[in-house]
Amino acid sequence: MFASSLSFRTAVVLGLLGIVMGITMAASHDHSVMPAHAHLNLLGWVSLFLYGIYYRFHPTIDSSRLALTQVIVWALGTVVLTVGVAALNLGKPQAEPIAVVGSLLILSDMVLFAVLVFRATDTVAKAARFEPAE
Predict the structure, then answer these.
(1) pTM value?
(2) Which residue range(s) make up the domain with 29?
């Protein structure tokens, strides 16, 4: 499977969960987990969809195991962070380590994405150099 395909599919699933979460908050008139809802939508729906677009425009990266790993870790980190933030906002301070682990997964995965982006940019820049004709 390509990283872009997994990214798009996971983004849709997490986006649907975010919508359900929002409808549930509205129906119950309890918006205490709004920060978790925002994290789920921005990290799960928006970020993953943007990753999918980036990977689709970079086919050599899209087919790499490293890109696939990046998408999986991001999705996992998003779910862990969302659960931790929701629990914290529901008054469960013992969930703080869960939020911390999710945050660190997201941070380390963004570093991995940066490596993929900068490595791709360097490769394109080297390929685009013009050499004088001999």
Answers:
(1) 0.87
(2) 3-125
